[in-house]
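User:
I study polymers; will you set down one protein's sequence and backbone structure tokens?

Assistant:
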Amino acid sequence: MFNLNGENLTLAVCLEEIKSSVGSSVTLNACVHKVRQMSGFAFVILRTGRYVFQSVYSADTCTDSIENVKEGCYVTVTGKVKEDKRANYGIEILLQTITVLSKPAADYPLHVSDRRLGCSIETNLDYRSVALRNPFERAVFKLSEGIVSGFREFMLKEGFTEIHTPKIVSAGAEGGANIFKLKYFDKDAFLAQSPQFYKQTCIAFFDRVFEIAPVYRAEKHNTSRHLNEYIGLDFEMGFIKDMGDVMNMETAMLKYVIHFLKENYENELTITGAVLPVITDIPVFSFFEALEAIGSRPNKYDLDPEDEVKLCDYAKEKYGSEFVFITHYPASKRPFYAMDNPENTKLAESFDLLFRGLEVTTGGQRIHSYEDQVAKMQSMGLNPEDFSSYLEAHKYGLPPHGGLGIGLERLAMKLLGLTNIRQSSLFPRDLTHLDP
């Protein structure tokens, strides 16, 4: 970064620049990740905002002492870059100067420099500001960044407009008890369960929209797959023929994101050992076909976690796909804005996408007719007057449209092979965690 006079304001680390500087000196800001004293010299492992470099200290070549340099110190170093195939990225830095900018007041309570922390998830969350200094832990969120960046880039290329909708709302998109209530001056308000109402409204004037934003669910779950605040990747698209258009768009998006990660996040993929899926065609089963395929009870109205695992195993074995779409859920179990199947009104034009044993997406075609939406609300025991601002968009006309919502943390969790969704949330919010 540079100011208006062209002066260097920060020493941002670019791996390719350092690798191309073999034989020359470089200067960088870093944190001392580990110091390994050897006979007559020391390895000083340096952690920058994305990378971990090996540097070598020798009193013969460095003008500064490392007597007081320890793990956790923030430093500015200058050193000569040399090739070493044994070191990270095939290079190491021979230190010429090392300036300590700050020192920690206490030693780390976790083994930050180990490949994996090796502690319980509760200890990890209790010391979150320390745990995230571990390269593996940090890489999880660089890959989350990559998912978001790939998603955004794809959406923009496909003519979607990015929107930012309110998170303090007067009514919940999903209804029910799983909604956080709060006082908004002298009125009752809620934290948004979804940007659904606003996405549909925006279809009237943008045709295609997407949003990347927090979603709040007041569900009293304490499982490895639930959070009370998560990041939703949402999109809505107008002028669709049916929900198949939405599913096709998601398939294309996922292919793009996987390619984007391969192209831009090799460092983090290596650190985490993440195995990216190969996506060709994603198999599709209706809800009752899915139950039959895994021998589950035909009178069920939703999938349970075991069903999701079995269906993904079935899709992998029979079709070679780690993803599977499940469509046409019972209409009574889907939100009031889900369109009924025209051939069987007991089923909804709604789908889930399962990935490696977990639902990561819910979507479908929405009701665009004002009369049909009012009738659906009434049939579900809802008062249309409570949704007057939402229905305004329908009243003045909407094209046939549909969309979906993806849970970022769930998708990242499964891409990385993590066992608990809290591991893919930077500072998770659940029943017991409101700090840090």
About this structure: The longest strand covers residues 25-37. The mean pLDDT is 94. The radius of gyration is 26 Å.
